[in-house]
């Protein structure tokens, strides 16, 4: 897939060939593991998703502790 832009100041957009029906999927197809050859942006997305999952789990655990203490 090629892109064309009249704005030379705008960085080129990296588009992947995707299934046209992927727009309607509930869950996007993101890599969950870091593999050799990934770009720094892809690696940062994987790391961010892992960190967010850990933080969500910690919040849920803390929420459950507070709810138990209030009972």
> Spans with pLDDT under 50 lasting ≥5 residues?
none
What proportion of the residues form beta strands (DSSP E)? under 5%
What letter string, H or E per element, gives the SSE order? H
Give the overall shape, derived from the CA principal axes.
Answer: elongated
The average pLDDT is: 78
Distance between the termini: 58 Å
Number of helices: 1
| Helix residue percentage | 40-55%
Structural class by helix and strand composition? mainly alpha
Which value, in Å, is the CA radius of gyration? 19 Å
Main β sheet profile: none
Strand tally: 0
Core attributes:
71 residues; mainly alpha; 1 helix; 44% helix; 0% strand; elongated
Structure described in brief:
The protein has one helix at residues 40-70. The protein has 71 residues and is mostly helical.
Characterization of the model:
This protein is mainly alpha-helical. The protein has a domain at 30-70. It contains one helix and no strands. The longest helix has 31 residues, at 40-70. It is elongated. It starts with 39 loop residues before the first helix and ends with a helix. The mean pLDDT is 78.
């Amino acid at each position: 897939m090629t892109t064309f832009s009249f704005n030379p100041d705008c960085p080129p957009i990296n588009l992947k060939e995707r299934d046209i029906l992927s727009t309607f999927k509930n869950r996007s197809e993101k890599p969950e593991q870091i593999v050799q050859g990934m770009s720094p942006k892809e690696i940062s997305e994987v790391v961010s998703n892992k960190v967010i999952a850990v933080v969500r789990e910690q919040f849920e655990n803390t929420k459950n502790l507070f709810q138990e203490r209030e009972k």
